Amino acid sequence: MSGVLKLALKLLLGDRGKFMTLVIGITFAVFLMMLMTSMFFGIIEHSAGNIINIGARMWVMDPDVQTPQNSIPMPNYVLDAVRSIPGVDYAVPLYVGAGLVRLHDGTYQPATVIGLDDATLFGRPELLDGHTLDIYGNNAFFVVRDANYAKLDSPKMGTTFEINDRRGVVAGIAHVSVGSLFGLPTLYTTYSRATQDLPSTRYEMSFILAQPKSAAAIPAIKRAVAQLGYLALTDQEFTTRNDRFYEFQTAMGTNILIMTLISFIVGLSIAGETFYMFVLDNLERFAALKAIGARSSELVAMIFYQSLVVSFLGFGFGVLLASALVAFGKLRIPNYAAMITFQNIFMALVMVLVISGVSAYIGIRRILRIDPFIVFRS
Amino acid sequence: MILSVQGVTKWFGEAPARTDALRNISFSVDHNEMLYIVGPSGSGKTTLLSVISGILRPNSGSVVVEGKDIWRLSADALADFRLHTLGFVFQDYHLFPRLTTLENIAVPLVLRRVPWEQGLEKARHVLEVVELADKAQLPPQRLSGGEQQRVAIARAIVSEPDLLVLDEPTASLDGDTGRRIVAFVRNHVLNERRAIIVVTHDDRIYEYASRIIHMEDGRIVDEPRPTA
To answer: A332 vs chain B: nearest CA distance in angstroms?
Structure first.
């Protein structure tokens, strides 16, 4: 490390009070920013759970559908039409709906019901207990063991229940990688049973899951589906569409954005003001350095370095604290929808760098204007 | 000759509120000379010191140090000039309270890009010269006024400057300590390769001067005269 930067570090660390205030201020801001954005990413991920869990390469839907939770049923001929599009390897129907489960104590619990294509069971979950073929048994359902499993009284294999006044039997306990956003238990069954047991409109098919023969075929498939009056999206595009819906068409995104901005402003205020106070307190020392022969560029480097050191320390502690809280939350609260991703770490880093840059800039402006002549005035 | 000041004028503000701080100042300083600039408060001593040091730009005139007109240099070159040619002892010392005594002394070396450990090693040697070797790891605020003054002197001479500038070196010290400090500078710091300029109004230390310039109202009112 250059001697000048070492000097800057010693000046910074020497003023423990301000150093701690700066680090704590930035830590707090990063912690809040990370927490806000991780909650948002967690919610987004859970909202796209069906897309991730089903794992289809392409989804065909009504053009007004925004999320996998809210479908507009399509007529069956669309499935035949999609299957006949050159470039489509295969296509299967998917039912996504809700059923009302009557528990043994007589209370009712809404549940998400996913009906898989009878022939292929495409999109079936990983089974923790039971066999895949058991889904073809009479009134068979697979129950997902997730945070909402207990809401169905934690049923065991063979447990019977009522769903929409029809008998249901637990034929398998399943696991999915992403839990539900809305706190509903999830049941899997065959497409035919789902459409037979659950009340529906004239059309029943929520989505068509399509597998293109190759990536190159995707644009042509999308065009052909569009000619049918429907929308074909890759899984990634559907996820993005779902994300945009929650970001811009619900208050969720806006509120979290506002909270993130407030955290940023709090961090900026604390860091900016404390750093400026630090510079003011050391003004005569910087003037002395200037008088002794430090170049302006060296003083600027010192200030930037000091600002970067506190920012990176605050960033590290903030990420650590937020990660610990999210991890703790996930351990203690099964439904806790928060997720720390590279994206929100990067976002927090950018914001911290802005805080660091602005704080340094405020200090540098003052430093560059110092007249070293002041060192000769007692 | 190490320093030549020719026709230097400096004023602050604009007419009619203009204050003439320096009026056509000319003098020179030779190697191995300890020049005092004396005079009452407001006579322009500190302004002259700042002009000589490349800190305050004069309105006219030239300041030539080691054959170089310093006010023709760029800002960075002027900073380099101060770093490589001058050593400062400020009236309030301006030591860094967050650094140890040793690190304070090494600051000019650090600015000269001398490696940190090497700078500390040299600073340790100079600390022995000013007889403060046992205080190396203390912060300057734990030292007495006289000790702080010696640390400031050590910092000024650590990079072996040609011209040492002392601003009111005895202002914060009692009479005996002040005299001891100036005697130390005269006997241990002044040499054939170096000159020292002292701004003071403390007549108790005049005996250590090679020459004294007396200033009043921005003028040299007393021609340089040799002392004992």
So the answer is: 45
